[in-house]
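Issue: copy button drops trailing tokens. Both records pasted manually instead:
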Amino acid sequence: MKDTPIPYDIVQKVVKKSNLPSIGKASIREVKRLINEIEEASGKKFIRMEMGIPGLPSVQIGLDAQKEALDNGVSAIYPDIDGIPSLKYEMARFCKSFMDIDVQPASCIPTVGSMQAGFATFLTFQHLHKERDTTLFIDPGFPVQKQQHRILGAKFETFDVYEFRGEKLKDKLESYLSKGNIHSIIYSNPNNPSWICFTEKELKIIGDLANKYDVIVIEDLAYFGMDFRKDISTPGKPPYQVTAAKYTDNYVLFISSSKAFSYAGERLGVMVISEKLFKGQYPNLKQYFGTDNLGHAMVYGAVYALSSGTSHSAQYAMAAILKACNDGDYNLVEGMVEYRDKANAMKKMFTDNGFKIVYDKDEDQPLSDGFYFTISYPGFSGEELLAELLYYGISAISLAITGSQRLEGLRACVSLIQKEEFPELERRLKIFAENHPLQ
């Protein structure tokens, strides 16, 4: 037993008391609770990398607009389920300005974060067809989306994209789509947890196959604009946020206020549905939603049943932020570059002390620095590494819970780490390396 930054016996006692059968298979919230308990018992602060919580102040433009809306009395009024007109209009503009795609304001639906957008979408899509009942996840991915499927009793299949980048993606996807049971494909871009970013070639493959097999692409854009290798911040001019929506009309996008605008506390996102889908007719929907129109079923069936809309005042906040981006008055990317800079510095600390970056490339290009990165240490599985790092006051989550096949890895989030903590992180990593020398 070696000296560690967090006393060994305290960690052992708290872990045993937690009754978690495996720390490496614990959910994000279970890991968070465990770290809180170790901090309380030891009196020592962890380097917290387990939660994907925004770590920057909210955009002031949004705060000012929300305060004005509250002063005008909107807190006493139910918002329309399909959202306030200004938010719908500015989101449609935003999609054109920063993605170069044409969408209608009517099909931009505010939701209680991307979480509710996902739940409403999965709930609706499992009833689109009698003969197709399965979602295909391009993993690794956000664990809660699979939990939502389990709650709904909805079927899903999954594969880890690590070995299937570039042209290899086409054959892999087709091996699933050709079976005829898939109604939709879902992925995040940039990706939570690996931070891979699909290339234009890969997104064209996804879009082309969506057209060929008449499946819907669900693109989770929670980290919009955060592939910092390209500055997409100038409205109406390339480069744009890359998207499969350039190659297919079968798409639903989730655009969140949480990360790009640090507006996570208000739980606001927007579901953007292509015009083709929004107006689409699916006879199987009628027995569940009383209509065969997808847009009507989504808004007045799923979203209505789940929450009757989302925060009235926060919609004014997001509308104002989007307008400022569209008008060129607010630089979307400049507001988030701190994540890039922290990731760059933290990845170097880990690799200088023997750690490896698990997901390290997009095809032949080095991965962007951003909100997340993935790490491993020779000789450890991900579960073992997560458990061992507890003694060093460093937290993360295992890739095993994300659908990744890289079971040696962990996901680390940079958002809550302050630069003043860097020296302590480096000190703890050096102790870890000394206690676990590499051959």
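Record 2 (pasted manually too):
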Amino acid sequence: MGRGGENLPMRLRIPSDLSSLLHTGLWRSVGSLGIKIATAGLTYLTYVVLSRTQTADEYGHFAFGLALATVLAILAGAGQPTAILRLWAELKGRGDEAGACGAVAAGSAITIGMSLAVGALLCLGTLLALPLVPAGQTVNHFYAAAMLILPLALAEYNSSVLRAQGSLWTALLPRDIFWRLALPGAVLALFAFHIVLSGPDALALAAGLLLGVLVLQMVAALRRGYAVLPALMPVRAHWRDWGGVSRWLLLGALIESAALNADVILVGLMLDLESSGLYFNAFRTAGLMTLFTFAIELVIAPMVAEHYHAGNMRKAQAVTALCTWAGFVFSLVIFAGFAVFGEPILSLFGPDYAGGWLVLVLLAFGLLFDAATGPSKIVMMMTGHERAYVAIFGTLMGLGFLVQIAVIPVFGVVGAAAVNMGARILAQIAIALWCRYRIGLDTSLYGALALRRLSDAPAA
């Protein structure tokens, strides 16, 4: 018995090579978490300010338009934000610096071109549908959503480009802090002058402010020597070489975005915009649980790609396990807070939203499984298994979406939340099992135990 106790510290001791790796990843993740906590607070402040200064109907227009623009911005990104995280590490690892810079330029040009095209199509579709719109209803939130597509898509791409090159502050601060600080500040300043923004007005203001922030970000990035500018010349070669991968990464990103935003749109279409606003607030509040997981994923995505493609499976597993455990502990604490204080938290948006406690808890429980199964999506995307991710996660969440169509008319927003929770749990378990048995990386809470069976490639 004593001998076993003596061996126990040895079993728990982290090897020196992994200790340095995890220390670096953890501290960068803490920095990322700090930004994301501030982001969440400012985002929450924005929603509270808008919901308090607008009518429930106008806030519903804003929530609907933002969800629609977010999904369409993912489509406009054409998979480039995820692709560049993987391609930069892969091409730089081969010593192809020119190819890596060309991938950045091509991806930026594709993002801008696609954003303009998707926005134009949304405006055209809205114009053609005008005869079908009932008298007294507006479609301006569709036009405003179209304005927001380009800045959202480019902001996501630039963030990925800069993180791939080792930047954290230049990548995250402009959009996550400066923009989210400027938007509620502008809304309150206008309100002080008795100017109350409609939903479409708020979307247009958000688009204009984000474009301004992106210009400042690109200037700062160029001064620091980062590759960030678009160029048309390498687009054809880039799409020829990586278009197939990009399409699957796009599908994966669309599915993930749909899983986070399609419910809001569906509730708005099948019930009313007030219900859409309530569901939007509950989902965005539940999303606070994933702050640490998301913050760490921003840091470890290029690390996973680098170590996996170099054959360093032990190091890839170590950073994956760090992400899972840190994210789960954080999410569990926040979930407990929602269970106890969910009603007063939602009442910050106004008394009409306090009744969404059950919706909040159901959505939060599904997201708790996200944390427990770790960065399975990132692992699949960074290791070349994007097709499997699309097939597994897309099928299960798609089936859930079809069930929601049948459930929402009967059970309303509670039914939508319950189906989302069930579909997410099944999907997360399925892709975590794929990572374990097909990729060789255990993204679940058991991943720390997998370090014993893995090894790194021998040093050259």
